[in-house]
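Handoff note, outgoing to incoming analyst
You'll be picking up this chain. Sequence as last confirmed:
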Amino acid sequence: MGPSGISDQLAEAAYLYAYSMDEAYKFLYETTIEPRLPFNEFQKIRDLADDTYTAHPTINNDTLHLQGWFDVAAEPVVVTVPDFDEGRYWILHTMDLGHYTTAMIGSRVRGTKGGRFVFAARAWAGTVPEGIDDVVRSDSDIIKVMGRIMTIGGNDLAIARQYMDRWTIETLSQHVGVAGPPRKERDFPDPESTNWMQRVNFVLGDGSMAAADADWLEQYSAIGLGPGRDDFTDMQIASAERGRTLGMKHLVDLAPAMRNAGDLLGTREDLQAGPRDLFAEGTYLGQWGLPPAESVYMKVESGSDGLPINGSGGKRYRTRFRAPDVSEFWSFTVYGNDDRLMAHNAINRHSRGDRTLTPDSEGYYTIELNSDVESNADHPNFLPIPEKDAYLILRLYGPSKAIQDGDYAMPVIEVVPRD
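Most recent structure output, in case you need it:
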């Protein structure tokens, strides 16, 4: 029991509950508030993310990204997405500040057909204009938006960028051509001068977040959690710091056991009552990741010898497998274990998948993994790995029900014997 009468177990549980909200808020502050970027505009990543992109861990190397934040406190926003060419994966994905997915609108459910979509606060009771395909509600008034448009790079990159440039965001008043209300003004707490409870309590005061999380907040009110609260005792602050230390150790220790994101990423309906450490792990390992209905993420950190995947000393690996059952596409991407980011290589190649590989006569795909970029640069099956501990993420977009249920085994990363 800590000096405040709050047990270490309760302090840790409170931090794990709050972790995803705090990380979401810090990402909002870092990407939008601190650089003074506007809400309700797309921040476009017009190239495939690579080792130069460090804004958040484990980003994919398969799609262009349209990122940003909606502010629907004053009024809803309308997003227009164009129609696409056949076979091109795309998605309009949104999440609230609790790190729950609120929308997955894309090729998996709509094929090539785009549309117009309204995003609104839970309490909004206005009139939906004609020509709107769907209305999406959010418990937070600030909503994370991530658009993804698949490209294999090269000449295809220009085509994908043309589609990207036809995505638009308007406030509802702009869309219908009338004067709109002023945007809500907020005093955003600076992460450099606040603790995690102050930031999370700010988030809980946004929209209907506190009402949605009422059952959880009842459990953690003793430590100081509650919408807008900022009146902590010294003992509560000490307990919160112990909770942060214990909680982060738990997330780091838990990470190697995570193989499938089914319990980590999803909608509030799916995960609201689930274990908070697993939900927090979804943020820790793959912030802003897609739920299993859209994309299953599988992770492998070791080769067939049981040791960490590592390209130092000329060590080589190979994996051979049949194509997984997906409706959209699949890909493997390599990340460094130390920072969960892609590592630099001379040919800027970080992934291989069904759009860049060709099966052999028996229907198997093969990927060769090592750090010898100079000798293998021209081999389409070659995937560079760094000379440090690394891991691979297999992304399965539009996975079958069997894959969603965990019935697909990650291909073994075989160690290639030395000559």
